[in-house]
Every structure is written in C-alpha cells, then in structure tokens.
Write a structure and sequence with these properties.
The chain is of the alpha+beta class and 696 residues long. The chain is 42% helix and 21% strand. The strands form 6 sheets. Strands 9, 10, 11, 12 and 13 form a 5-stranded antiparallel sheet that branches. The N and C termini lie far apart (76 Å).
Length: 696
C-alpha cells in the first residue's frame, strides 16, 4: 500500500470544517426526516415482502390496482404503491424485517444503511491511499443522492457495498468472488450485469464465470422463494418495457437521462408529450442506438490490454458513470454509485500526479450530486451534463487503449451492436400510435386510467391520482369524492343499469353501489352491498358478481336481484382475475393466474363451469357485448396484451391492437362500440382510455 497523501494543516482544517457541515446537513435534512416518515420505494419493497410472508403469491405484484389493494390491507400509509419494474428478488433484502410495522422496519433499514456506508468506506480505505477524512468528505459531498437514498429507503448503498466488495476482491486477485459479488448486485438492480462487457473485453473468464454462476444460483433461489409465475411475468411483460425506458414517466426530463430526452424530442403522445421537436420513431431509434453504442464502445476501445492496479482502478471507476448514462431512468439516488467512482478516480489521478484532473472530477461529481433548483435539472439537464463530463474526463485519463490489432474488430462489433439496438427500437415502436386518434382525454392530474365503463350519462374511469385511486367522470367535470375512506380500485357499470358498483379498499375491500342518477353529485350516499372485490354486473344490472378471498382461496359470488345464487368455484388466491356477466346470468371469467390465464364459462341455468378451450393462448379481461353476440378480451402475444373481439356464434376473431404495449380492460359502450385502456406511449400499466367503433 503506498504512503498516505500528505496535506497542509490549513487544507486539513478546511476539509474538517466542510466535512462537519456536510455531515450536519445530512443528519438534519436527510436522516432525521427519513427516520420520522415513510415514503415510496422502501414501502414498495416492504409491501411485496409482507405479502409474500402471508403466503400470498406475488404473481400480480406488477399490477397497480392489485398491489394498491394490499397496500391498503396492510395499512401502509402511502397514497399509491407499485412494484414495477423491480425484479421479484427485490423483496428479499427486507424480507427479514417485513414482520415489523412499516415505519419501524424502515428505521431498521436506515441503521443497516449506515452500516453499509461505514463498511464500504472501510473497504475503500484498504484499496486507496486516501485518508479517512477525505473518504468521508467525498462521500458526504454526495448530498442529494444520499438524501434520496435514505428518504426513499432505497437499495443503492447496498449495491455500492457489493460493487466495492467486488472491486476489493478483484484487487486481491479473487476474480470469481468479484463476479459473484456483482451478480448479487445485479439480482437487485439489473444494470451491474453489464459488467459482463468489461469482463469479456478483458478476457477475465474467472470473473465472468463468477457472475454467471452466482447469477444463475440467485435466479434459482428467487424462483424457489417467490415462484416461477411472477418471474415469467417479469421476463415477458415488465423487463422488455423497462429496458426501453417505457416505464414510469418516459418523457420526464427531471430524470436527466438520454432516453427521456430522446422520448421528449422525437416521440409524440397525445397527453404526455403533445409537442415533440420532431415526431419520428425512426429518428428516435437511430439516435438512441447511436448514443448507446458510442458510450459503450468508447469505454471498450479506451480499455487497454495491460492488467495492473492502475488499469483496474480506471476500468471500475469509469464503468459506473457509463452505466448511469446508459440507464433509462437514473434518478438522484442512482448517483450514490458515483461515491465509488470519485474516491477510486481521485486516488488514481493523484497517484499519477494529475491533481488538476482530480479536482475537476470532484467538481463534476459535486454538480451531479448537489440539490440544484428543479429548473436547472429539467431545462438545462445539469445532472446529465455533469455525468457526461465526468465520464469524458475519465476517458481522457485512460491509462491505455485497445490494441490496434483489435480496433477493426471493435469497430465491427460496434456497428453490429448499433444495428441490433436500432432494429430492436424500431420493432418496439412499431404501431405505437395506432390508438392515438381514438384516445379519450384522461384527467390532467391523473397518473393513469385502469378501466372505463359506460354509465347511463357518463363514461366512468377508475384512475390513479396523486392522493390515491378514485372514480372520475370522463368528458365531464367531476372527480367523485365518495364519503368513504379508501381507494376505489374497481368500477362496474352498464348503460342500462340503475346502479354503479365500486370496490372501496381500506383494511379490507367492500362493494358499494351508487344510484346512476346520483353520479357526479356531491351528496351521493353509497350503499354497502357485500365484502369483496372486483365487481362485475350484467348489462341490465340485475346480476352482480364479485370475488372474496378466504384461506388463500379466491371465491366467486353471484347475486341476482340482490339474492345469492350458488356457484361452486374457487381457486388459489390471485388465480381468478376478471369477470363478465351477460343478462341471462352467464359468467365468463379469467382464471389460472396472471402468468397463465385462460377463460372459463359458468352457466347459471345448469350450474356448470366449462373452460373455453376454443379461445387459445394466454387470455384475460373478458367483456361480453350487451346483445351477447360478441366477446372482447386481451391476449398476450410477445409480452404485450392485444385486444381481440370474437363472434361467439361463428368463432371468428378480429384483432384490434398490435403494438408492443398493452390494451386491456375492455367494456362495451353499445353493441358496436368498445371502450378499453391502452398504455401505448405511456408508462407500464398507466393507461389512457380509448374508444373504438367496430363498424369502421
């Protein structure tokens, strides 16, 4: 270990004062508020773990309304909850403390995070020549990322500890262990898996083997703990959308990401991005692919063949800002990872006598980490610029270059990579605007719509608002404030029904009905019908079906004119999904779980249940037309839910959507007009209402 760097008494005093100030700000403005209050992220992980501890399958954890229902059941005090796009194993770190009340569990997690910070700094002390004072100073200079990591209860100090441990192992020559530590980090947040590129470039086969073998073992553990079905949904439906930045806030410039910036510049969306600079999915596809290729292969081409402590330090320090630049949604807490970059990078540059570059590295790090006013992030993209400058500076200071013999191969691989990315982007964006012209404007204050139903006078939308889930009237001026505590998680209405039924969730779910004539009025008085969830009614309003959960079983209940009608059908909890009722009491429902759903039919006259094997594939969201002649439903194809209408007499099917996004929750406005919800061009599952005339 080289001698510790010397400094003057004056500079040491200044650094101690600055460190004391930064620690004080962190304690008062970050740790103390995080200790007192719950916030999102941690509660999402906690909720998934708590649901799993109750023996409830997580198959539907990526569905916003389902997850919110358990948020209410477990009395987690947050307005909205969502698990996407976390991998299922993301619930594992808090699983041991999920038996505690939410706030107490978060406090335990905060203390554990302080231990993570101390341990990773101790490791960095072993592999750098920086003093404890400077290690702490550089760490607490990471003001906003540390604040957000503690406030939201995020995992990024745990990830930073795992990456630091992997680097320590690599410095000691324990390459398989280094790959294994990175696999643990990649199991929680997928981006550390990109270290595969670095290991392949350096032909570090032991580290590559460690990453792959440990990753496979963790994947097996995750499937063993949480089941295959939730992993199937994550791999088919969630991961592809997240990889292309098509998740929460795809146009939100405050994320300071190139993906969000290109979404804003080149992709039109009627509500979220009505005025792009140039509406061109082709330009977006090429620009995003070109930038990702330049960023990745600039690193690979600047990576030399030599293997020594300096090259290892540069490679690891430079790779983390590259991953942040490639990320589709790098929020502030992602930048906790740059603590490793600035410490290892400054240590490397000082050892090479590059004090000026070390100072610039700290400046760019501070700019990326400082809580600047919002307009600087959004309008000037300050954090994105600082990240890019930091990465460029490290490239400039690269201790080596790719061997000239391999550069031609590198350029060839870059061309192939660009082509693959561009093709993938084009395929994903194909037909994304197919329902834009049919959109019905949702609430400007809502995050997303989840169902749309025709009442006698209104189009009723179940929508997620900042304060929770509510019943809203489309193309009208009301947001129904029911005199009940809880979230409105489901709505059942019909053009000729005298009542609208809603599910209101708090410590449990209950079905209430509202007279159609009172919809939109402030003095509406809901009447409780039953304890249950997910109501469905017949077009004439005489039949009502709903679900109840008992002993990990979901049961269907059927009422006619308010009287119970026997139906003997139950499945494992979460396996019964949606239902549709016809005027003669025939019930068509989706069951089999979210991973492998199919449709079944219950005939009230005979009391028999028959699986509709003639409707093939993974299908859910059935909706019978008012005349009983057609059935609308969603079928999963290539990870996206597409809308179909089937003639029940002839068996002929008509496909209405084909884009790589979801069209779900169909309902009939009349026998020729279908309503549904589409998340095309929007965040995963955060849809907008759509109307389609089937005669056109």
């Amino acid at each position: 270990m080289p001698a510790r760097f010397k400094d003057s008494r004056y500079s040491a005093a200044v650094e101690w004062i600055l460190l004391a100030l930064l620690v004080g700000v962190f304690a008062v403005r970050s740790f103390a508020p995080a200790w007192r209050q719950l916030s999102t992220n941690f509660t999402n992980y906690y909720l998934a773990a708590a649901v799993h501890r109750q023996g409830i399958p997580l198959d539907r954890a990526y569905e916003w309304r389902w997850f919110q229902r358990y948020n209410d059941y477990f009395r987690v005090p947050q307005s909205v909850a969502g698990f996407a796009p976390q991998p299922p194993i993301g619930a594992l770190p808090v699983l041991p403390i999920a038996k505690l009340p939410p706030l107490r569990a978060k406090r335990v997690w905060l203390v554990i995070n302080l231990a993570f910070l101390g341990l990773l700094l101790w490791i960095l002390r072993q592999v750098t020549a920086l003093s404890w004072r400077r290690l702490l100073l550089l760490s607490f200079l990471c003001l906003l990322p540390l604040h957000d990591n503690f406030w939201y209860g995020q995992y990024y100090l745990l990830l930073l500890l795992l990456i630091t441990a992997a680097y320590f192992a690599a410095c000691r020559g324990w390459q398989f262990t280094a790959g294994g530590a990175l696999a643990c980090a990649a199991a929680l947040k997928l981006f550390p898996a990109f270290f595969l590129f670095l290991f392949f470039r350096k032909r570090n086969w032991r580290a590559l083997a460690g990453l792959v073998v440990t990753g496979a073992a963790l994947a097996a553990l995750s499937v063993l703990l949480f089941g295959w079905n939730v992993h199937k949904i994550f791999l088919l439906e969630v991961l592809p959308r997240a990889a292309h930045g098509d998740q929460i806030g795809p146009y939100a410039l405050e994320y300071n990401s190139f993906t969000a910036l290109f979404h804003r510049l080149f992709l039109f969306e009627p509500e979220l991005n009505p005025a792009p600079w140039l509406n061109s999915p082709i330009v977006y596809s090429l620009a995003q692919a070109a930038l990702a290729t330049v960023l990745l292969f600039s690193f690979l081409l600047f990576t030399g063949e030599e293997e020594n402590p300096q090259t290892t330090a540069w490679e690891w320090a430079t790779f983390l800002p590259l991953l942040i630049l490639l990320s589709s949604m790098p929020t502030a807490y992602h930048h906790c990872l740059l603590i490793f970059t600035v410490i290892v990078g400054v240590d490397l540059l000082l050892k090479r006598g590059r004090a000026g570059s070390a100072f610039l590295l700290v400046v760019f790090f501070a700019i990326a980490s400082f809580p600047w006013p919002a307009f600087l992030w959004i309008n000037l993209q300050l954090r994105l610029i600082a990240d890019l400058l930091l990465y460029t500076l490290l490239l400039y200071e690269a201790p080596g270059r790719m061997n000239p013999r391999f550069r031609t191969l590198g350029y060839g691989l870059a061309t192939v990579w660009f082509g693959l990315l561009a093709f993938s982007n084009i395929q994903v964006l194909r037909n994304r605007d197919e329902d834009f012209s049919r959109r019905l404007s949702p609430s400007p204050f809502g995050y997303g719509a989840f169902s749309i139903e025709k009442d006698g006078s209104y189009l009723l939308v179940n929508e997620m608002m900042p304060r929770g889930f509510t019943l809203a009237g489309l193309q009208s001026d009301f947001d129904q404030q029911l005199p009940l505590r809880g979230d409105v998680l489901a709505v059942a209405a019909a053009p000729h029904s005298p009542f609208v039924y809603v599910e209101v969730a708090s410590i449990d779910s209950r079905i209430f009905r509202l007279p159609s004539a009172q919809i939109g009025q402030t003095a509406v008085v809901p009447e409780e019908v039953a304890q249950g969830h997910d109501p469905a009614i017949s077009p004439d309003g005489r039949w009502l079906a709903f679900l109840t959960d008992k002993a990990n079983k979901t049961e269907i209940h059927l009422l006619k004119d308010g009287q119970g009608f026997p139906i003997s059908y139950s499945e494992r909890m979460s396996d019964i999904l949606e239902m549709s009722l016809s005027s003669d009491g025939t019930l068509i429902f989706a069951s089999g779980g979210a991973a492998n759903p199919h449709l079944s039919r219950f005939d009230s006259s005979s009391g028999t249940v028959r699986r509709l094997i003639e409707i093939s594939g993974a299908v859910r969201h059935p909706a019978s037309s008012s005349d009983g002649k057609n059935l609308a439903f969603s079928r999963r194809e290539s990870g996206a839910w597409h809308l179909f209408v089937r003639d029940l007499q002839s068996g002929a099917e008509r496909q209405l959507t084909s884009a790589a996004c979801n069209a779900t929750s169909p309902s009939w406005e009349d026998s020729h007009t279908l309503l549904y919800v589409s998340d095309c061009g929007r965040g995963l599952g955060l849809g907008a209402p759509v109307r389609v005339d089937l005669d056109k």
